[in-house]
Specification:
The structure holds two protein chains of two kinds. In chain A, about 50% of the residues lie in helices and about 10% in strands. Chain A has helices at about 10-15, 25-30, 40-60, 70-80, 85-100, 105-120, 150-160, 180-190, 205-215, 235-250, 270-280, 300-305, 330-335, and strands at about 135-140, 165-170, 195, 220-225, 255-265, 285-290, 310-315, 325. The radius of gyration of chain A is 21 Å and the shape is elongated. Chain B has helices at about 5-15, 25-40, 45-60, 60-65, 70-85, 115-130, 150-160, 170-185, 205-215, 235-245, 260-270, 290-300, 305-315, 315-330, 335-345, 350-355, 360-370, 375-385, 390-395, 400-410, 415-435, 440-450, 470-475; strands at about 105-110, 135-140, 160-165, 190-195, 220-225, 250, 275-280, 285-290. In chain B, helix 15 (about 335-345) packs antiparallel against helix 18 and helix 20 packs across helix 21 (about 415-435). Chain B has 23 helices and eight strands. In chain B, helix 11 (about 260-270) links the parallel strand 6 (about 250) and strand 7 (about 275-280). By secondary structure, chain B is of the alpha/beta class. Chain B folds into three domains: about 5-85, SRP54, nucleotide-binding domain (Four Helix Bundle (Hemerythrin (Met), subunit A), Up-down Bundle), CATH 1.20.120.140; about 105-300, P-loop containing nucleotide triphosphate hydrolases (Rossmann fold, 3-Layer(aba) Sandwich), CATH 3.40.50.300; about 325-480, 434 Repressor (Amino-terminal Domain) (Orthogonal Bundle). Chain B has an eight-stranded mixed β-sheet, sandwiched between helices. Classes of the chains: A alpha/beta, B alpha/beta.
Chain lengths: ~350, ~500
């Protein structure tokens, strides 16, 4: 149960195997972390994120008997981890049913919590695996402004390249100033060609061109960046629909994956993001970024519960290697501080 | 941003207001609901707790139980406490960004990755240059994210604000020194330092940030925060405050559908005032933060003051006067309508305007559900521009043939043209009435727009449809702000121009 299943198609280990000579990004050179196991890295990243919740639990369970007051506080703590009111209530209810008025230790509470959260997350744990039947495997990356789409594409492209796949990048954010340059820098770093147009250019046309070129040059994967947009902006969402429509003119089965990038610091609004991007862009999986801060990313639990949307990867830093396969158990343990 | 929270609180309060007397238990129950609503809106837990405690103490005391309408009284207490939590009432004359310092005045922008620092930097620079008529230099200290410096340079070009030339290989502290030096030599009034995004627990980067502060001694240090942030917002704010003594908070993505809990929490936890709100991707989408107005918006009381301000800023006073004169004579042709439509668009579109009117939160949601968006305005503008000059001046001559031509020209249907003409006729009537001293105006216009929206609006709430009277009544029942939709008694929101008759054309230009 606690072992990381080895079914992952690409794994962070393969990323760290990259030799230094392979033009690693400037920033990862600077603070290049020593090679650590997946779990260690993830725990490092997440443990910082979870200090509050684990401290909180340790604090409230100095009393031994599980009473209502303690349960209320526990529910509050889960809410503070952004799990959402409903999930928090569910989990506390289960704890109450099983253990009310019984002696319980901190450690038991933690592993109980981790177990409950893992139960919810396990079904959505699904590595990102480009299907070789589709060539190129067209992947669209969407999300609200500043969630980390371009950075995620850079990191993902690097991981895919490390697996020996050929990757084409498309600088589809034609709105934000210098977004195109940002992706081009990534392209240079990892040695992937970048399709781009001018700022203010037609994003849908660019996506079309990228798929066309991906075919002509026989790439394994085409990663298409898009401009950040708030999901309640109907006009911008319509523009995204157009990108999808245009891609489908070339390949009715494309995009073969649509990744929604979520910022771990986001609160309950992430539910709206998943719902609306899911409806309009047909999101197939999630990437959660910025888990290297103190945000717990607990909203992922609420999302898993409501939408059962696959979670592929998590981002734990700005370096090119700071993208990891999502592991439900490790995530749950890290979030609750359970061993 | 606050619509969802508004809806939740509205439900809670509607249970309270209908009753004569309130027991302690009633208040308790309502407060439990309020607590939940606030938590679902991402308000930080400690803030929620102290908020509920304060409201409860006041509500259970004499204030409520003995008052004539206890429900209303509870809402008032919640409103007062909200204002307090958000930073208290502020004087509109007080400058949001202080420039009272030796020139060049350094302003430093800090925040997490992706919070919107660079865009906010450009917005603030543009605003200072325009409103304060100062010369601003922007410098990007972000040497980490690829092309971040380039991003600020491009924004500088778009806004006409000078940016510090990029020198490859310099570290942030060196760039900061160079920026201040360039600001002094170039005779700049303000130097804005846009720093790299950083996690507040990244010790190396926090130390670097402190060093930048030490060498530049910024007059303002602004923390840029995403309003969609969850419970972590307070940790971020607290850490930045402790580390470099942030002087103000900028909330971004306020135009999203988040519930704005971060806004409610950060000020309460850190004591740092929220100064500005980023309300859109465009570089002029920046608003002052005023606690009492935001509290009003949260409780569904609308924000007419902001609306008037925005109108005063975006409306061409001369054009407005001209139209107003024509209106008085009962002449209101399609050219005028077209001008009105584009004004509406400039003020943030239907939704932008609606969001600030009192008591329309529910209607708004229905509008969103009915997919009534600003495309309507665009289509209507297209219809008008497909008409000849003569037709615009005298729509009566539009027969079936002409209508077909216009439909083809504007890519619409004849039925849409008929709807537009109907709207115009109704508006002309209302405006004529206004010219005679009646009221209607903006509310009326909105009523029309909504009433004809998107090919039949399904199930608007009772009293919402195209009838301006109904809309006005609704507003009155929602609290009735003076001057808007009825000769209400003064009070409520301060600073509302007297007799704000609505009617975009008649709006007084507050500036100049």
């Amino acid at each position: 149960m606690t072992e990381n299943p080895s079914k992952a198609v690409w794994r962070p280990e393969s990323m760290t195997q990259l030799k230094e000579g392979n033009d690693v990004s400037a920033e990862s050179e600077e603070d290049a972390p020593k090679k650590k196991s997946l779990f260690q890295r993830m725990k490092d990243g997440l443990s910082r994120s979870t200090r509050t919740i684990t401290d909180g639990i340790t604090g409230i369970f100095t009393r031994k008997k599980l009473d209502q007051e303690t349960l209320d506080e526990l529910e509050d703590l889960l809410i503070q981890a952004d799990l959402g009111v409903d999930v928090a209530a569910d989990i506390t209810r289960t704890l109450k049913r099983d253990r009310f008025d019984k002696e319980i230790s901190d450690e038991e509470v933690k592993s109980f919590l981790a177990g409950e959260i893992a139960k919810i997350l396990k079904p959505v744990e699904k590595p990102f695996a480009p299907d070789p039947a589709h060539r190129p495997f067209v992947t669209l990356v969407v999300g609200v402004n500043g969630s980390g789409k371009t950075t995620t594409i850079g990191k993902l492209a690097k991981a895919l390249k490390a697996e020996g796949k050929s990757v084409l990048l498309a600088a589809g954010d034609t709105f934000r100033a210098a977004a195109i340059d940002q992706l081009k820098v990534w392209g240079e770093r990892i040695g992937a060609p970048v399709v781009s147009t001018r700022v203010g250019g037609d994003a849908a046309g660019l996506a079309y061109e990228a798929v066309e070129r991906g075919r002509a040059e026989n790439h394994d994967v085409v990663l298409i960046d898009t401009a950040g947009r708030l999901q309640n902006k109907t006009d911008l969402m319509a523009e995204l629909e157009k990108v999808l429509r245009v891609i489908r003119k070339l390949d009715p089965t494309a995009p073969h994956a649509t990744l929604l990038v979520l910022d771990a610091t986001t609160g309950q609004n992430a539910l709206n993001q998943v719902e609306i991007f899911g409806k309009i862009a047909g999101v197939t999986g999630l990437v959660m970024t910025k888990l290297d801060g103190t945000a717990r990313g607990g909203i992922l639990v609420a999302i898993a519960k409501r939408f059962a949307m696959p979670v592929h990867m998590i981002g734990v830093g700005e370096g090119a290697d700071d993208l990891q396969v999502f592991d439900a158990e490790a995530f749950s343990r890290a979030i609750t501080g359970a061993r | 941003m606050f619509e969802n929270l508004t809806g939740r609180l509205g439900d809670v309060f509607s249970k309270l207001t209908g009753r004569g007397a309130l027991s302690e238990k009633d208040v308790d129950e309502a407060m439990r609901e309020v607590r939940r609503a606030l938590l679902e809106a991402d308000v930080a837990l400690p803030v929620v707790k102290s908020f509920i405690d304060k409201v409860k103490t006041r509500a259970i005391g004499h204030e409520v139980v003995k008052s004539v309408s206890p429900g209303q009284q509870v809402i008032k207490i919640v409103h007062d406490e909200l204002v307090e939590m958000l930073g208290g009432a502020s004087s509109p004359d007080e400058p949001v960004i202080s420039l009272q310092a030796v020139r060049p005045v350094p302003i430093m922008m800090v925040g997490l990755q992706g919070s919107g620092k660079t865009t906010s930097t450009a917005k603030i620079a543009r605003r200072l240059a325009e409103r304060e008529k100062v010369k601003v230099l922007m410098a990007s200290l972000d040497t980490r994210r690829p092309a971040a410096q380039e991003q600020l340079r491009v924004l500088g070009e778009q806004t006409g604000i000078a940016t510090l030339p990029i020198v490859a290989g310099q570290n942030p502290v060196q760039i900061a020194r160079r920026a201040i030096e360039a600001g002094r030599l170039g005779g700049y009034d303000v130097v804005m330092l846009d720093t790299a995004g950083r996690t507040h627990i990244d010790e190396a980067l926090m130390a670097e940030m402190a060093e930048v502060r030490d060498v530049t001694n910024p007059h303002e240090i602004l923390l840029v925060t995403d309003s969609l942030t969850g419970q972590d917002a307070v940790n971020v704010a607290r850490q930045f405050k402790e580390r470099i003594d942030v002087t103000g908070i900028i909330l971004t993505r306020v135009d999203g559908d988040g519930r704005g809990g971060a806004a409610l929490s950060m000020r309460a936890v850190t004591g740092v005032p929220i100064k500005l709100l980023g309300t859109g991707e465009k570089l002029d989408a920046l608003e002052d933060f005023r606690a009492e107005r935001v509290a009003g918006r949260i409780l569904g009381m609308g924000d007419v003051v902001s609306l008037v301000e925005r109108a005063a800023e975006t409306i061409d006073a001369e054009k407005a006067n001209r139209i107003a004169k024509k209106m008085k004579k009962g002449e209101f042709d399609l050219d005028d309508l077209s001008e009105q439509l584009s004004q509406m668009a400039r003020m943030g579109g239907i939704k932008g305007v609606m969001s600030m009117l009192p008591g329309i939160a529910k209607a708004q949601k229905q509008m969103a559900d009915a997919n009534l968006d600003d495309k309507v305005i665009k289509r209507q503008t297209a219809i008008i521009s497909s008409m000849t000059k003569i037709e615009r001046r005298n729509p009566k001559i539009l027969d079936a043939r002409r209508k077909r031509r216009i439909a083809a020209g504007s890519g619409t249907e004849v039925s849409e043209i008929n709807k537009l003409l109907k709207m115009h006729r109704q508006m002309a009537d209302v405006l004529k009435m206004m010219g005679k001293g009646g009221r209607g105006g903006l509310a009326g216009m909105l009523g029309k727009m909504v009433g004809m929206g998107g090919g039949g609006m399904p199930e608007m709430p009772a009293g919402m449809p195209g009838d301006p009277k109904a809309l006005q009544d609704m507003m009155k029942s929602a609290g009735g702000f003076p001057g808007l939709g009825g000769p209400g008694k003064p009070g409520g929101l301060p600073g509302l121009p007297k007799g704000f008759p609505g009617g975009l054309p008649g709006l007084p230009s507050k500036k100049k």
